[in-house]
Amino acid sequence: MTVAAVVIGRNEGARLIACLAALEGQVDQVIYVDSGSTDGSAEAAQSRGALVVALDMTQPFTAARARNAGLEKVAEGVEFVQFLDGDCALRKGWIDTARSFLEGHPDVAVVCGRRRERFPDASVYNRLIDREWDTPVGQALACGGDALMRVAPLRDLGGYRDSLIAGEEPELCVRLRQAGWQIWRLDAEMTWHDAEITRLSQWWKRSQRAGHAFAEGAALHGAPPERHWVAESRRALIWGAVLPLSILLLALLISPWALLLLGIYPLQILRLSRHGGLAWAALTTFSKFAEGLGAVQYQLRRMSGRKSEIIEYK
User: Fold this and answer.
1) Is residue 127 part of a domain?
2) Is residue 279 domain-shared with residue 216, that is, in the same domain?
3) How far apart are CA 73 and CA 166, in angstroms?
4) Is the model's pTM score more than 0.85?
5) Which residues contact 203 (CB under 8 A, 6 or more apart)?
6) Cα 183 from Cα 144, distance rounded (Å)
7) Is residue 268 located within the same domain as residue 171?
8) What is the pLDDT of residues 207-225, one digit of tens each?
9) C-beta separation of 291 from 229 below 8 A
């Protein structure tokens, strides 16, 4: 055996079935890590030949912990592992393309490709997430949740950092690069993804989780020369927390006219709209408040010594 797949999920229903069906004939071993599903996901995966791992839900859930649980079950002798979320489906030919690239580039530990939203027109949020996946190809700093990785260096570094509630792949890639490995993104179709975000509250939670990940990533690897997510964390805190709170404080202590300074946000939307359209600009600006909240929550938990809790948006 040369390639295994580790799929993680909870109550993904038909999306998990599609995920497992797409893996047939592309990998030698399928491992499904279930995080407390109540919709029969574990039984459905087992009936399709997957090795099912029930994650211990008495401990706080993180996707990183689920991926590590799957990695532990990868058979001896397997050289590569494809990680997937249960709401994704692998594209035909991806494994062959990615494996050939890794075999021809022994200094590369991780390779990823094009992730697309299956239903980009289902909502404005899905459409913007589909745009988010359109990242540059070539040597990269990090990958996302879908990627083909070499098993050996992954195990050498202890896998993913269990405690991270988000941003576990970029953090892993930092450590891989520090160990001398490279990360590459190919111009090849890799996966379909179904974000299924239809409400503003879901977008808010997703952005809040991103802000938390930015702050924690910067705390872990923000020192030079890496400066991991320092700029992203700073933007979240300034635009989403420091600036609005300062304006409100000025309005309370000096003059209500200070609220006019909030006009900087509509101006920011107009500025950004020239590059990506009004909807993208408005939601990008709005998301900074959620990111700021997530970043502040991380800092408060860090100071108090409390563990971070998962932020779910669906």
Assistant:
1) yes
2) yes
3) 22
4) yes
5) 125, 197, 283, 287, 290, 313
6) 11
7) no
8) 999 999 999 999 999 999 9
9) no
